[in-house]
Amino acid sequence: AQKITQTQPGMFVQEKEAVTLDCTYDTSDQSYGLFWYKQPSSGEMIFLIYQGSYDEQNATEGRYSLNFQKARKSANLVISASQLGDSAMYFCAMREHDMRFGAGTRLTVKP
Amino acid sequence: EAQVTQNPRYLITVTGKKLTVTCSQNMNHEYMSWYRQDPGLGLRQIYYSMNVEVTDKGDVPEGYKVSRKEKRNFPLILESPSPNQTSLYFCASSLLLADTDTQYFGPGTRLTVL
Asked: How far is CA B24 from CA A35, A39, B17, in A?
């Protein structure tokens, strides 16, 4: 069965600095997708970034990038130039068919 | 606007009183799913549907029912709610079931069962 691990329950970062949120996964499939979602205090789930298992380049979306290391089965999210509005819960997810989520990391950006 | 809608957004009820949470998407997505979110556990899948009249159990289906009579709608039914079903519920949809398909989420329904 799929398993997603986010080892950082909480993280702090200074405004304007970069931060890396860790995610490791476990699968025996060769084809899968990796996703990151942001959940602000208002509760909605916002899709941030996607990485396919066959993609050779790391995905980037604006200030978000995904550091994909397939051999290590890790898919860390990097947020550059943190902003106060980045304070939220962040979930890593993997999809082979159904989507499975990690427990999340709460990021707090300090002014 | 492409979206997934859920109603109600907030609900407080009592043990045993049947309730339905509606979910609708306007993106013509084949795949729809229900999750519950509890602190420290992330999101866990309750039920999913790959197409009209096709539904299947997720990881935590006990105490829930679903139906998919139309492509756009996927209601979640709690026949006899219990306090351990107090949670934040999300409906989500994606084009298909492929690993490349992003799931888009509704705004969430916060349910309290007393």
From this structure: 23, 21, 23
